[in-house]
Amino acid sequence: MKSARILPLCFFVFGIPGFIFSQGCCSGGGGSPIAGGASQGVLLDRQMEVMVNHQYLQSDKFYSGDKDTAKLFDKLYSNYLYFRVAYGITKDLTMSVETGYFINKSLISLEHRDTISSSGIADLILFPRYDIINRTTETHRTEWTVGLGYKIPLGKHNDSTVSYIDPTTAQKYYTTSPPTVQPTNGSNDYIFYTFLSRNYTQKNFRVFGNALYIRKGWNSLGEKFGDYASMSVFVSKTYLKHWGVTLQLKGEHIAKMQAAKNVDLVASYNVYTQSTGGKTVYLVPQLSYSKKALTIFALANLPVYQYLNGVQIGTQYFITSGLSYRFYMKKPIGE
Fold it and tell me: Are 35 and 299 in contact (CB under 8 A)?
């Protein structure tokens, strides 16, 4: 079995309960979706959050630029569990530790002749965030947060699959699986993040936004996945005390993949760097229900515009659902 010409699937979410399936992060080399749909500021002093969500994605849509084009394989899909534990060290500083596990990442060839699959742990993300501004008046609250994270690959980025079985000796020959189905991209990456929020408390209405940049490193295969950048604007309103509705508009850009000087990605891994990277605009509706310390949420990434370099598989279905629980490790000072 020969691997298909694999090109990345592009989407990335950061936040709320937030990383992606794209050349820039997940698909072209795995990567943990950072999970979710809303931005994150900081927790309260001594407050802890435990969050888990499930992300399902599937696509059989291929693009050349912003136009539909012929399929290179039948379908790509994955099931991913994402976990985050965060703690408010002070009222201004929060530290979170995040990781994920792929139940499966699968690529089905044309006419369903072959399926290439993998599973396993993805990355570990260490992500401190600090409030530069946090001001509250009788009518509104303003918050500005910055974050600097570091991603450490834990899973496989060089997993292989059987490509040929000798009919005489029954000996199996293996080929490195395409980046699209590896649990991680295998590189240490830096995450730069900023978040700005304006909460109109009397109207239960909130406007906020974030910007995210991921500086990708090189992995052991001589691959460097394209740096990732995104900007998002959100509006959110609370109804009947418990129900929250959020609408996000997000634009993202993923740079092209690079190869080390002594590595031929086409010959070694069937990866065409000219068919990596691109830009996408998403509309992301989210519904949540909160009662006391527990929040349950669901959201969907809806692509409204995609421009992908070369020929690539694009975003089609990307659905996230999960829950978050917040509590105090110790009673806050003064309460």
Answer: no
As a whole number of angstroms, the distance between CA 22 and CA 11 comes to: 6
**Once rounded to an integer, what is the mean pLDDT over residues 80-87?**
95
Q: Indicate the length of the chain as a whole number.
A: 335
Using CA atoms, how far apart are residues 261 and 229, in angstroms rounded to an integer?
25
Residue with tokens 């978040």: 195
Rounded to whole angstroms, how far apart are CA atoms 19 and 126? 13
Q: Tokens for 200?
A: 């109109």
Question: What sign for the dihedral angle of Cα 156, 158, 162, 168?
Answer: negative
Provide the H-helix boundaries in 186-308.
Answer: 265-269
According to DSSP, the residues that pair with 211 across neighbouring strands are: 194, 231
Structure tokens at 201: 């408390």
For residues 27-50, give the mean pLDDT.
63
Rounded Cα gap, residues 223 and 240, in angstroms: 50
Measure the CA–CA gap between 91 and 113, rounded to whole angstroms: 56
Which is it for the CA torsion 237, 243, 249, 252, positive or negative?
Answer: positive
Q: What is the pTM of this model?
A: 0.87
Sign of CA dihedral 267, 268, 273, 278: positive
Question: Cα–Cα distances in Å, from 313 out to 66, 68, 107, 131, 138?
Answer: 11, 10, 11, 38, 49
